[in-house]
Design brief:
The protein is of the alpha/beta class. It folds into two domains: 6-123 and 238-265, NAD(P)-binding Rossmann-like Domain (Rossmann fold, 3-Layer(aba) Sandwich), CATH 3.40.50; 129-235, 2-Layer Sandwich (Dihydrodipicolinate Reductase, domain 2), CATH 3.30.360. The protein has helices at residues 16-27, 80-93, 106-115, 129-145, 167-179, 184-187, 239-252, 262-265; strands spanning 6-11, 31-37, 62-63, 72-76, 97-99, 120-123, 150-157, 188-189, 204-210, 217-224, 227-234, 258-260. The strands form two sheets. Strands 3-2-1-4-5-6-12 form a seven-stranded parallel β-sheet, with helices on both faces. The chain has a five-stranded mixed β-sheet with strand order 8-9-7-10-11. It binds nicotinamide-adenine-dinucleotide. Nicotinamide-adenine-dinucleotide (NAD) binds next to helix 1 and helix 2.
Length: 269
């Protein structure tokens, strides 16, 4: 018996992630593209969604309206301003949602929680399976090593990145703080420039390096008496996020309503 083919609608299809997703869906054996959406002033509207970005013809026209067919699944990597409307469309049509858009507001988070009572949703600010695992491993390590080990997070990104430290470094720090019952906002130290103050035991240091073309590197250091442990993740290609999102889409296809994250997808939740 042939495997079920998953019908996918991509939102933000003209964007960097959207194009990576288009390619990944078109190259996969178990997925088919049934919709591609971008904003109303986007170039390429009304044209073949894949052709207009230099990929082979997909037979799907780029639209500015999200109308996912029943039985399909929406993968949204666009902008926070679009998220509320996209959640509403998915709920109306009873269609699962994989949401990768970052920077969503607390109100939108609340909407997601509410929508998760009606449809299955995976929302993650980082769909890399490696980062998801690194975050969990760092929690296990922090709990096991205890307060004798100081925690420092170092991240390195290309020179064009605007925000520092990275959202991922902050999330790893929060996860470690949560695992060891510390208040992250109180113990996080994002920069050091001092001649007087020593590090405290409970601090979680976060340091950002910027330069070159590095796609993203995160290292969690646990620095103890006589030994140290380093957990490292290196991203070399943004396709890892698309692969993770499509893995989440496959996983979500037979799930009931709920708001899930990447740890659930990997069976770590
Ligand atoms: P991008 O700017 O290249 O692409 C965004 C696309 O969304 C553009 O084509 C834009 O026209 C489109 N868009 C804007 N408003 C829209 C609307 N109302 N309806 C439909 N489409 C709309 O950005 P990107 O690098 O592709 O990233 C997109 C989002 O995904 C960002 O929020 C980014 O932070 C996030 N992201 C998440 C992960 C993850 O793992 N979760 C990884 C990479 C990027």
């Amino acid at each position: 018996m042939s495997e079920r083919v998953l019908s996918v609608v991509i939102v933000g299809a003209r964007g960097r992630m959207g194009q990576t997703l288009l390619r990944a869906v078109m190259e996969s054996d178990d997925m088919t593209l049934v919709g591609a959406v971008d904003r109303s002033d986007s170039p390429g509207l009304g044209q073949d969604a894949a052709r207009s970005v230099g990929l082979p013809e997909s037979g799907v026209v780029l639209s500015d309206e999200l109308a996912p067919p029943r039985g399909s699944i929406v993968v949204d990597f666009s902008l926070p301003a679009a998220t509320d409307g996209n959640i509403a469309r998915c709920v109306e049509r009873g269609v699962p949602l994989v949401l990768g858009t970052t920077g969503i507001t607390a109100e939108t988070r609340e909407r997601l929680r509410h929508a998760g009572k009606q449809i299955p949703i995976v929302s993650a600010a980082n769909f890399s399976v490696g980062i998801t695992l690194l975050t969990q491993l760092a929690q296990i390590a922090a709990r096991a090593l205890g307060p004798d080990f100081d925690t420092e997070i170092l991240e390195l990104h290309h020179r064009h990145k605007r925000d520092a430290p990275s959202g991922t470094a902050l999330r790893i720090g929060k996860a470690i703080a949560q695992a060891t019952e510390r208040d992250f906002e109180r113990v996080a130290v994002r920069a050091r420039d001092t001649t007087e103050t020593q590090r405290t035991t409970e601090e979680i240091g976060i340091v950002a390096l910027r330069g070159g073309d590095c796609a993203g590197e995160h290292t969690v250091h646990f620095l103890g008496p006589g030994e140290r442990l380093e957990l490292v993740h290196r991203a070399t290609d943004r396709a890892i996020f698309a692969r993770g999102a499509l893995r989440a889409a496959r996983w979500l296809a037979d799930k009931g309503p709920g708001l899930y994250d990447m740890a659930d997808v990997l069976g770590l939740g």
